[in-house]
Amino acid sequence: MTTLYSRRSALAFAGLATALPVLAACSSNNSGSNSMASSGSSASAGAKPTPTSSVPTGMPEGKGSGQADDVFPRTVVHFKGSAEIPAAPTKVVVIATGQLDAVLTLGTVPVGSTKGDGAEAVPEYIKKAFPQQAEQLGSITDIGSRKDPSVEAVSNLAPDLILMNAAIKKADEVYAAMSAIAPTVVTQGTGQYWKQDFLLVADALGKPDTAEKWIETYQADAAKAGSAIEGNPTVSLLRHNEERLRIFGPISTAGSVLADMGVARPDTQQFTDEVSKDISAEQLEQANADWLFYGVQGGDASKVTSLDLWQALNPVDAKQAVQVDDDAFFLNAGPTAIRAILTQVSDSMTKK
After folding, report:
1. Per residue in 53-82, pLDDT tens?
2. Which domain does 242 fall in, by range?
3. pTM over 0.90, yes/no
4. Which of 192, 216, 240 lies at the terminal end of a domain, its last residue?
5. In sequence order, what are the residues at sequence separation of 6 or more whose Cβ sits closer than 8 angstroms to the Cβ of residue 323?
6. Mean per-residue pLDDT of the chain
7. What phi, psi does 267 have (nearest 5°)?
8. Alpha-carbon distance 288 to 84, whole Å?
9. Using CB atoms within 10 A of its CB, is residue 56 exposed (0-12), middle (13-18) or buried (19+)?
């Protein structure tokens, strides 16, 4: 078994190794300036950082099947055990946010899917990215909330593969119920692990090599897009949902794209102990930077733009505050969302 995993284990160690420099840099530079003038542009005069991943890049150590594309049967080791998959899955159910995105990217339309809080079952960015599958997307069965999927609804679909992640509530309980229905593969979950989760999902579908090539192409495109941005502007990430206002660091999904582009972050957003941090309306200066990309659950920008300190932010004054697709940037850690983030950031910062 060791030889089967050797190639992907090497990739995993490579991904972790590239993450270490950026994590160390983030820890040493986390001075947390609260000045409107200084917190946004501290990196502008320096050299542009070398693109480096801020999240694990390869297959998790010891996970996956070690098999190449289209080889079945295969035994996929995952975060709750292992799954025997006898043939290429044709009826897939996805429970975790981002997995709908991942399986579609690999050419499979699931028969059932959950949805996150306050989100559509099929986000708009997915519909735009896969117009040729519009009819099939409209026929996906809603199996309830990802926090509490309907076991009965899943069973009625008679799936041959179920995908979920270990970060959902009652993961052990959900896994026990789902694995009694069909082979179930569990990824780690959360945006921090989107690359390795994509590879594990791909392995379950019999497409690990395809997914590796996708990531390699994306990494090259991200580095190229970053090199096309003039100077070394800092970029801030902000989200409003329900009553929460949050800034996002390098290990968030969107933050990892910025890291892969080699884009600088403000001092206030170089934390790596968590994906995001809550701020109050009175702490909005922590969202200051040369550029600001912000999402609002439900799309009502006024929930952010009406805040008292909004007009005092540097990117607002410079007309470099950009509202983005909340689903793609902050809710769905899948490869198509990643491409949407890369395109939005690149287009905004190179076409001004």
Report:
1. 889 999 989 999 999 999 999 999 999 999
2. 34-52+221-350
3. no
4. 216
5. 294, 295, 296, 301
6. 87
7. -55, -35
8. 49
9. buried
